[in-house]
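Handoff note, outgoing to incoming analyst
You'll be picking up this chain. Sequence as last confirmed:
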Amino acid sequence: MGFRQNRSTIDNVFIIIHIFEKCYEHNIDLHNIFVDFTQAFDSVCKNKMECLAQYKIPEKLVRPIEFNQY
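Most recent structure output, in case you need it:
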């Protein structure tokens, strides 16, 4: 979710905990993954970003990676 004006990082943690509790309550399998885009894509070359389009990665996932490029 990132940092947003008038929002605390505790809000994000609360939402995740609430999702865990509701899934447990209703016996729903929950699979989650947390990716630190800065660490995961710190050394990605800009010309290699083109391959994401070839694999039809949604633009909303490509933008944060491009944003962190130097």
